[in-house]
Specification:
By secondary structure, the chain is mainly alpha-helical. Helices cover 59% and strands 4% of the residues. Helix 2 runs parallel beside helix 4 (77-91), helix 17 (353-359) runs parallel beside helix 19 (387-394) and helix 18 (369-375) packs across helix 20.
Length: 575
């Protein structure tokens, strides 16, 4: 039996008689922009006090009406934080994932030590509900292995950092005692006398340390500060250090890994260009599929840790709490398209090497092609067996790899034609990701996959294409990659969230010139000669630029181009 986490009640309003739900629902639906703020605050307080009494059907009705009400209550931070807390409490018995969303929202609206304690307690509730350590102890008991039992008891004591209140740790100890009573025969218990003695002597005093959520927030803040001082090439390593903070706690909650594993990232991390508010796309290679439940648990815990940061947009199931802004916050979260914690993804995203290689075969090419292609280009975040990824890659037929790359390139060419319908000089707003990075960084990665390269960094792929004699000069492209990355980092830091758009008026003249130059001298000529690249023919982008742009289009950029590239680089003739 799981000891329930104490609901957060200290910050909830005190009312003597909660209104009937149907009355509250009518009041909520009657709220407009003309509703007095005091009346609106009282309605939210009445609603908060009634949340615990709602059934599933009533909650569904409430969540349909609530978003509109919250749009008129953006100044009521205290009331919104209390309402989100109450909704988190309501979900504790139903969905810890939903509860964590609401708890994190409340914490972000109004930070208190009580809320830090409350949100942190969800992690120990998770491990108690899953009976993770109880199962490990029961297995050791069945196997008559008191030494292993004692080791698990040591691990149990390390879970004190997750326990905000005494009864949480007491519940863990109680599960240990339950494991010893599975078969209470004296002959079975005798070898475990040393274990029972250890159980009795365990110090149950909890440490007076900070809460997990505070630790995670501090680690994330320190990671983001690195973007202001570190070389961009170091940011992948800094992300690994951040991920290690989460992973260390996750392993405590789920127990030690039972077999070989490799936790691997996709997307911008695989391309070695994470941004301050980038999300995580990842998958797990495992040695033995019989341990799938363990790694599903690991993925669940890591998702809960990320949600606790309050930067995971929860979708339509959870209303926007406007005290935090007009939309859900979006920062460090796990992308639902590549999240091994989601049941619909576990077949693809937690797999043995041979199984994953099979899903990317030609026969299965219709099973999420974008994801299948991404899985071929990843970077390890943490592994205890690097041979797993090598085994996975070795089982991919080179022709399958080439086919996937070609499909991605053709799709990118079509998207390029749809996107670039206006000259860059005439754009009122620039989107660094959808207009530049998607068509430069991602295309270079596609080339790497097409030519069977085992590297994922666009800069490294460029070097290899250059040595193959395909791209004759890559200095300008490398400079463009670096500048686009720098500009994207600045947009994230300035916005305090994921943001890739910038109005033309907000950019300095040299930044606008750089973007126009990137389009005229790199993107446009490169997309005009993709077939030549695939045929391994030598390409000079400067020469190609002369053919696909007019002199009038290039003339304003010529001076900037000459300044941007080294003097020994072949430059186009003067216009």
């Amino acid at each position: 039996m799981v000891t329930p986490v104490t609901p957060l009640t200290g910050s909830l309003p005190k009312v003597h008689a909660p209104k009937a739900f149907h009355v509250l629902l009518v009041e909520i639906q009657s709220i407009t922009e003309k509703t007095p703020l005091q009346k609106l605050a009282q309605t939210l307080s009445d609603l908060t006090a009634s949340i615990s009494n709602l059934d599933q059907q009533q909650m569904r009705k409430l969540l349909i009406c609530l978003p509109k009400t919250l749009t008129h209550a953006n100044s009521l931070k205290k009331e919104q934080a209390e309402l989100s807390s109450a909704l988190g409490n309501w979900n504790l018995e139903r969905s810890l994932r939903e509860a964590m969303h609401y708890c994190a929202i409340a914490l972000n609206i109004e930070e208190t030590q009580e809320r830090h304690e409350w949100v942190s307690s969800i992690f120990i509730r998770w491990t108690l509900e899953k009976a993770v350590h109880k199962s490990l102890l029961e297995h050791a008991y069945r196997m008559a292995d008191p030494e292993r039992f004692n080791t698990i008891l040591d691990d149990l004591q390390r879970l004190k950092i997750f326990c905000g209140v005494q009864k949480d740790f007491d519940a863990l100890i109680d599960q240990a005692y339950q494991a010893l009573t599975e078969d209470p025969r004296e002959s079975r218990l005798q070898p475990f006398e040393v274990c029972t003695e250890k159980l009795r002597s365990i110090d149950r005093t909890l440490p007076q340390s900070g809460y997990l959520t505070q630790k995670y927030q501090t680690a994330l803040e320190n990671y983001r500060k690195q973007f202001e001082t570190s070389d961009p090439s170091e940011m992948l390593d800094h992300f690994k250090e951040l991920f290690e903070v989460f992973l260390e706690d996750a392993f405590l909650l789920v127990g030690p890994p039972p077999c070989g594993y490799d936790l691997r990232a996709l997307g911008s991390l695989a391309k070695k260009s994470p941004c301050p508010y980038s999300d995580l796309e990842w998958f797990i290679l495992i040695e033995d599929k019989k341990h799938l439940p363990y790694f599903q648990n690991l993925a669940e815990v890591i998702e809960l840790q990320f949600i606790s940061l309050g930067e995971t947009a929860p979708g339509v199931s959870i209303p926007v709490f406007t005290a935090l802004g007009p939309k859900h916050r979006s920062g460090l979260h796990i992308d639902p398209g590549a999240n091994p914690a989601l049941e619909s993804n576990t077949v693809e995203l937690i797999s043995e090497p041979a199984e994953l290689a099979s899903t990317i075969s030609v026969e299965n090419s219709n099973n999420n092609d974008d994801l299948a292609t991404s899985l071929l280009q990843s970077v390890s975040l943490k592994t205890n067996d690097s041979s797993l990824h090598a085994s996975f890659q070795s089982q991919i037929d080179p022709e399958v790899r080439k086919k996937k790359a070609l499909e991605a390139i053709e799709a990118r060419k079509a998207l390029y034609s749809q996107t670039w319908t206006a000259a860059p000089e005439h754009l009122q707003e620039y989107n660094l990701k959808t207009e530049f990075i998607t068509f430069l960084n991602f295309l270079i990665s596609d080339f790497g996959l097409y030519f069977g390269m085992d590297i994922t960094s666009p800069e490294a792929i460029l070097q290899k294409l250059n040595r193959m004699g395909i791209l004759q000069d890559i200095k300008l492209i490398k400079q463009a990659l670096k500048q686009l990355y720098t500009m994207r980092i600045q947009l994230h830091l300035q916005a305090g969230e994921q943001k890739d758009t910038a109005p033309a008026t907000s950019l300095a003249p040299n930044e606008r010139t750089f973007l126009c130059m990137t389009y005229r001298f790199i993107l446009k000529p490169l997309y005009n000669c993709i077939d030549k690249v695939l045929e391994r023919r030598a390409i000079n982008l400067f020469t190609e630029a002369l053919q696909v742009n007019t002199k009038e289009e290039l003339k304003p950029l010529t001076k900037s181009l000459v300044q941007a590239i080294p003097k020994n680089t072949h430059t186009p003739e003067k216009y």
